[in-house]
UniProtKB/TrEMBL annotation:
GO terms for molecular function: ATP binding; phosphorelay sensor kinase activity. This is histidine kinase. It comes from Gluconobacter albidus. SMART domains: HAMP, HATPase_c, HisKA. Residues 236-440 form the Histidine kinase domain. Residues 176-228 form the HAMP domain. Keywords: ATP-binding, Cell inner membrane, Cell membrane, Kinase, Membrane, Nucleotide-binding, Phosphoprotein, Transferase, Transmembrane, Transmembrane helix, Two-component regulatory system. It is found in: Cell inner membrane.
Length: 454
């Protein structure tokens, strides 16, 4: 309904309002233009019409046409018409002209008896035309040029149009100025809580915008404080958990019972994997890795070839080269996670890559396993959720694999879509599709230490 932004919407409303005012004024001027006639000119016209009527009424019929020409001038042109010709007059004259007739005949009984009629050539005409009847039934026709002062009205409308245009331009500039802080707020708000470096908002603009900028800065400071506290806690937990695990592993090596030693080491491996998975999930947002442009096909082929060397059925279909701007190690972990899931649950894997019509890069990892029910697609992306209720490592991980994948892909500006693979190719199980946006990043327009303009 409203596809325009704030500036466009306000400009549309302003334009409609100015247009309505302009049209209303134009209609008003069109209806009221006859009232611009000067009172002195009305008196002069009444006197001239009364004089012409008396002169022509007293003159012989043969001389009336000549006298009418003689009585004509720049302010009033007169013509005589015999009674044998019936004059054709327009329909109903404007209300303003009817009132003018009343003013002309109010103090002159001669004009009142002459059945004075006034009319114009049409809307916007400044000339007044009229007729009056002589006692013998003949008519006097006359024309008064510029009687209605139309030129003054036209100049008024033109001035109003110019003024309206100037107001509209000035208002548009002011509206754009007011909306600029809002656009800056939107740009900065998108980065709140993300891994991008926080640039505080400059608290400028109207009081409401300054208050909002101050609140956003305070909120981001609190978020940054929470992130710092979490980072310190993760560092402490990582050390405190890994240290006893290492001691247990060392003590396990001194056991004489080989079977018990193997069981304990398996439990330690499971505990370490769980700790590493949880720490990786919690610390993912603090990953300092810098994005760079890589050939993602090389990463895919390396992972596929590695599983082929380990005796797994793995294939890649797609181009030999596809450049993408990502964090290389994080993207490798994502692809490795999806490929290992496909091998574990489906026994084989097909990795495909293609460029979509909109330029985005699409990477699909399919397997021939049982897949996941469609109703579970959203749930399996949640942290610590597993389709299999137990937490046994023999039947899967701890439910963080797809959650980590989705978060890492989101950090790259992409998305993860779950679905079914192509059964005709033998890969009708789960298909995890990664969609990465097209294009390479442009240099940043802001330098460190500069505040966002508001």
């Amino acid at each position: 309904m409203w596809p325009l932004g704030l500036v466009g919407r306000v400009c549309v409303v302003l334009t409609v309002a100015v247009t309505l005012v302009f049209l209303t004024n134009a209609i008003f001027y069109g209806q009221a233009e006859t009232y611009i006639v000067d009172d002195v000119r009305i008196a002069q016209l009444g006197e001239a019409l009364s004089t012409d009527l008396r002169v022509l009424a007293a003159a012989p019929v043969s001389q009336r046409s000549f006298l009418a020409v003689m009585l004509s001038g720049s302010e009033l042109s007169v013509a005589w018409q015999p009674a044998s010709i019936t004059p054709v007059l327009p329909g109903h004259p404007p209300v303003a002209l009817t009132q003018l007739v009343r003013r002309l005949t109010a103090d002159d009984p001669i004009l009142e008896q002459a059945h004075l009629d006034l009319y114009t050539l049409g809307p916007g005409s400044a000339d007044v035309l009229g007729s009056q009847r002589l006692p013998d039934g003949s008519y006097i026709h006359f024309r008064v040029p510029g009687m209605l002062g139309h030129h003054r009205v036209t100049r008024g409308l033109a001035s109003a149009a110019i003024a309206a245009g100037a107001v509209a331009i000035a208002a548009t500039m002011l509206i754009r100025g007011l909306s600029m802080p809002l656009r800056a707020l939107v740009s900065v708000a998108d980065r709140i809580g993300s891994s991008e470096k926080w640039v505080p908002l400059a608290e400028r603009g109207p009081p409401e915008v300054r208050g909002l900028a101050h609140a956003i800065n305070a909120m981001q400071d609190r978020i940054q404080s929470l992130i710092n506290d979490r980072t310190q806690a993760l560092a402490a937990v990582s050390h405190d958990l890994r240290t006893p695990l290492t001691r247990l592993r060392l003590r396990c090596g001194f056991l004489n019972d080989g079977e018990a030693q193997a069981a304990i080491e398996a439990d330690l491996d499971e505990m370490e994997a769980m700790v590493n998975g949880i720490l990786a999930y919690l610390a993912g947002a603090d990953d300092p890795e810098v994005p760079r442009t890589i050939n993602i096909v090389a990463t895919l082929e390396t992972l596929v070839d590695d599983h082929v060397d380990r005796g797994h059925e793995a294939h890649y279909e797609g181009p030999d080269r596809a450049l993408v701007h990502v964090r290389p190690l994080a993207m490798k972990r994502v692809l490795s996670n999806l490929i290992e899931n496909a091998i574990n649950y489906g026994g084989n894997v097909l990795a495909t890559l293609r460029t979509r019509e909109d330029g985005a890069l699409e990477i699909a990892i399919s397997d021939s396993g049982p897949g996941i029910p469609e109703s579970e697609y959203e749930r399996v992306l949640a942290p610590f959720y597993r389709l299999e209720g137990s937490r046994s490592r023999a039947t899967g991980g701890i439910g963080l694999g797809l959650a980590i994948v989705q978060r890492e892909i989101s950090r790259e500006g992409g998305s993860l879509v779950l679905g079914r693979g192509d059964a005709s190719k033998g890969y009708g199980g789960l298909c995890a599709t990664i969609i990465l946006p097209k294009g390479l990043p442009s240099p940043s327009r802001k330098t460190e230490g500069q505040g966002e303009q508001v």
